[in-house]
Design a protein that fits this description.
The chain is 44% helix and 19% strand. The protein is an alpha/beta fold and 121 residues long. The chain has one domain: 3-Layer(aba) Sandwich (Rossmann fold), CATH 3.40.50. Helix 2 runs parallel beside helix 3.
């Protein structure tokens, strides 16, 4: 059975780009345009891994990471932050929120797929 991944990003182009890379590699993909929508979608169907932006309207990525980790079902689900944010404070806040990897846009397709594969074990 293929793994189900969620992409959370307010940029439609970014969601489409990441989605096509993941689908080409055989993953099932669910998209959400912000953390609030992502939380709602995560409660409808189990997700194996989350790729999330930091800066988004309604609910940002770090708030989303903290909130999803409060749910027992998602406590151990890996989160990759894929963002333009490079500040050490944000990266530390991400780690504290349970983020497993931090990647900077524009992303390298092979590196992203490698991180996904590694985190899915």
């Amino acid at each position: 059975m293929s793994k189900r991944l969620m992409i959370v990003d307010d940029s439609t182009v970014m969601r489409m780009t990441v989605s096509s890379v993941l689908k080409e590699s055989g993953y099932e993909v669910i998209e959400a345009e912000n953390g609030q929508v992502a939380l709602e979608k995560a409660m409808q169907a189990p997700i194996d891994l989350i790729i999330c932006d930091v800066n988004m309207p309604v609910m940002d990525g770090l708030t989303f990471a903290r909130k999803i980790k409060e749910n027992a079902q998602y406590r151990f689900v890996p989160i990759i932050m894929l963002t333009t944010v490079t500040g050490q404070a944000e990266i530390e806040a991400g780690k504290a929120a349970g983020v497993k990897a931090w990647m900077v846009k524009p992303f390298d397709k092979a590196k992203l797929l490698g991180a996904v594969s590694k985190l899915l074990g």
